[in-house]
Amino acid sequence: MAFGLLDLLDECWVTCEIRFANEGAEGSLPSDVLWDGYRQRLEADREVEAFTYSLWVDWFEDQTTSAMALAEVLGNDID
Question: Is the pLDDT of residue 79 over 80?
């Protein structure tokens, strides 16, 4: 649902809520769903500015998530 809202609204706050949910007390979101959603949007014809900004400031700048996020965005196909 969150990715659908992101597609409709293109608002950075939606991406913040995705990250908050991933770091919530109930544990991480299913990584296959989370990162498949990110990869699908990177491959789409239409660029969602809030989405690419989120990758930059929420995932890639954070030293605790940058390596994992880059590997996931690349589909764990770094080689």
Answer: no
Whole-number Å distance between alpha carbons of 45 and 77? 22
pLDDT of 78? 61
Residue ranges of domains in the chain: 2-73
Q: Which value, to the nearest 10 degrees, does the dihedral of the CA atoms of residues 69, 75, 76, 78 take?
A: -100
Question: How many other C-beta atoms lie within 10 A of the C-beta of residue 3?
Answer: 19
Distance CA(22)–CA(74), nearest Å, equals 19
Contacts of 4 (CB under 8 A, 6+ apart): none
pLDDT in tens, 14-60: 999 998 998 888 888 898 999 999 899 888 888 778 888 999 998 99
Residue in the structure block whose two tokens are 């769903």: 33
Spatial separation of the C-alpha atoms in residues 51 and 26, rounded to whole Å: 24
